[in-house]
Amino acid sequence: CEIHPFNHIPEDLSKVKGIIYSGSPFSVREEGSPRLDQSQFKHLPVLGVCYGAQLMAQTEGGNVEASTTREYGRANLNYINLDSELLKGVSDGSQVWMSHADTITNLPEPFEIIASTDSVKVAGYKVKGEERYGIQFHPEVTHSTDGLQILKNFVVDICGCRQEWTPAHFVETTVAELKEKIGEDKVVLGLSGGVDSSVAAMLLHKAIGEQLHCIFVDNGLLRKNEFENVLESYQGMGLNVKGVDAKQKFYDSLKGLT
């Protein structure tokens, strides 16, 4: 899964299985709201969520208008097209989570409604003859009780992803990339003692071992005994770490400041 901003789409889409347009705090009716060239994804399955669904509908000839009241909170699907691949396994009256100030009032051809609530006629749609879908609610939050099922239907059944990825794959590919990029060079890494720098250090250590030189600085503003405790924990991880006591340097620079 990769997240990209709407205005910086990767040039090579050959390995992409599908696209999800996320929600947004913008309104599709606003000038300057996020827009993108959707034609580049015509050959791929697409799922528009909230703003994403409205963007697809509006740019292809439908109408999106301001709701009389902002809809925020739980709702229930009172119509579900159970023949839809996207909504397979979704229960009657399924609870969903809405968060929008606009609503789709008219769908373009050849869009068809696949889900509705009492107050939102177009809670879900499909483009006939294509694997493109839009849903007005948010499947990614726990309040949408069948949200994970809907996402699985899209990602696994419609896009054909295999669910084989594990965190171990990330480590393997990252270590391999680091080895290739660094070669015989040495790397100096400033450690903060926190999770992010520690993970970065361990990945580099797996890739280049003793070529990595970690530095942990005592700036005088750490918690009590943190400098000693962190250094000790790093030694147990096998890292090549040097501790630098720079307390006085920092105190001198900070003297007189509030």
Structural summary, described in words:
This protein is an alpha/beta fold and 258 residues long. Helices cover 27% and strands 27% of the residues. It has six helices and ten strands; from the N terminus they run ββαβββββααβαβαβα. It has a seven-stranded mixed beta sheet, with helices on one face. Strands 8-9-10 form a three-stranded parallel beta sheet, covered by helices on one side. Helix 4 (195-208) links the parallel strand 8 and strand 9 (212-218). Helix 3 crosses helix 4 (195-208). The longest helix is centred in the C-terminal third of the chain and has 16 residues, at 167-182. The two termini are 45 Å apart.
Choose one word for the global shape: elongated
User: What class do helices, strands and sheet pairing give?
Assistant: alpha/beta
**Secondary-structure element sequence?**
EEHEEEEEHHEHEHEH
Which percent bin holds the helix content?
25-40%
Low-confidence stretches: none
Keywords:
258 residues, alpha/beta, seven-stranded mixed β-sheet, three-stranded parallel β-sheet, 10 strands, 27% helix, 27% strand
Provide a short characterization of the protein structure.
The chain is of the alpha/beta class and 258 residues long. The protein has six helices and ten strands, in the order ββαβββββααβαβαβα.
